[in-house]
Amino acid sequence: MCVRPAVLICIDGWGVTSETRGNAIAAAHTPVMTALSKVDGQYAVIRAHGLDVGLPDGNMGNSEVGHLTIGAGRIEYQDLVRINRSIENGTFASAPALVDAFSRAKSGTKRMHFLGLVSDGGVHSHITHLFELLKAAKAAGVEQCFVHFIADGRDTPPSSATTYLQQVLDFTKELQYGTVATVMGRFYAMDRDKRWDRIEKAFRCILCGQGDVIAAGSPVSALEKRYEAGETDEFLKPMIFDRDGIVHTGDTLVCFNFRADRMREIVEAIGIAPPFDTKGYTVRELRLLNVPTDLSVVQFTLYNKAFSKLPVVVPPDSMDMTLAEVVASRNLAQAHVAETEKYAHVTFFFNGGKEAVLPNEDRVMIPSPKHVATYDLAPTMSVAEVADAVCTAIASKKYAFIVCNLAPPDMVGHTGNYKQTVVACEATDTAIGRILDACNASNTTLFITADHGNAEVMLDEQGNPKTSHTTNPVPFIMTGDNRLKFRVTTGGLQDVAPTILRVMGLPVPEQMTGKSMLLE
């Protein structure tokens, strides 16, 4: 079987818009992407948000659903939609994991905790899910309930946590149930790059009562004072508003983020084993911290197969015959390349939410910079090293398919630093140029797309820094043989995999509901 080799670049956070105000991509010098966007028949603009990636209509896309949809070649209703539907049809509170959690709390310490990101960003969590959990816990007869509030500031404006905190306070007051026990920024509680020093601060606040104790005044006022001191939501240092609300031995805790990647570390620390045993603490020191034991920790979705002993409120759907699985089924070699921040996206998510490495699949993880707190301080990140790895893989002629992620536009865009995001986009364009040259030298077809928008909108309507994703479409580019043309100039992320398979000369499985955009 003659297979045409292909490389797919997924740029993170590279949307398409004609608006130039606050557009870091338009401001950047990007000769490669600019030239490719002008090639007749090989440039299209495809949808990457809302229903087209299985999210609620109008919701901005994100890296998880973007890579999942690209790799699966179909639209799968995401966990957010599945959870919302269960709320709408009245089955949410009867999920076995929740029923068991409420029962354990009632028969044990009579204390329930809810931990998660509190916003309406819809990327990692949604505030309405917290409200439903509070109602369900009260209806189940659990005596006490405490909220551990993780502030957003990345998928929402950077100083908007006061709005969401007030909503929670108003809701619990009306419900006459529930207390906000702790508040902290996602910088501490939602790390995904094994920066255990950050997770430790969240851990010690939630479980050991160590943090800034706010003895008087309203929680909202406390946050406003933090804003005045220069802190923003993402970086809010841990605060304790109710000393009795920290997690005690025997308590039950439900994590309500539905997205897995940024919950794995905090759940490992709380629900599996604190990683700090070998990070500078002796067992005796941990005991002196009064770390609670015999906890019942519940995952909202399956955060990690290694956490299989922890109950799951919304178990995963299976997804078969993804792009990677089709390649593997033909005994062809493939490589998945990304830096640490986006490694899960080109492996776990791209492969349909599956951890297992496929036959003949090689995975390459390039370390993301660790010497900086935020990536605007290192705006090129490790994009050059990712390009090195991809070019080496192409030159080896070992692989029929290579997928890589280029992270800087999204990760630097999330900082709100416009100038440094311009630098990130330029570095990304340079990396694309190098990969393009390698593909041309080896008769390999290069495809370029993005998982969602971000860097093209860096200012909100008031002119303030915008750190969240967008609902803009993204590019889909095909390079190489000039005889290869798109039959249409619009589509969705679900159409990427079928198109690539057709160009490679591989069959498109019936499980893929996306359509090839190739003119044949």
UniProtKB/TrEMBL annotation:
The protein's required cofactors: Mn(2+)
Keyword Phosphoprotein: no
UniProt keyword list: Glycolysis, Isomerase, Manganese, Metal-binding
Active site: S63
Binding-site residues for Mn(2+) 2, renumbered to this chain: D12, S63, D451, H452
Enzyme class, broadest EC rank: isomerase
GO MF terms held by the record: manganese ion binding; phosphoglycerate mutase activity
One of the record's GO cellular component terms: cytoplasm
Pathway: Carbohydrate degradation; glycolysis; pyruvate from D-glyceraldehyde 3-phosphate: step 3/5
Residue span(s) of domain BPG-independent PGAM N-terminal: 83-304
Domain Metalloenzyme, first and last residues per copy: 5-506
Pfam families: iPGM_N, Metalloenzyme
Annotated GO biological process: glucose catabolic process; glycolytic process
Family: Belongs to the BPG-independent phosphoglycerate mutase family.
Name of this protein: phosphoglycerate mutase (2,3-diphosphoglycerate-independent)
Organism annotation: Plasmodiophora brassicae
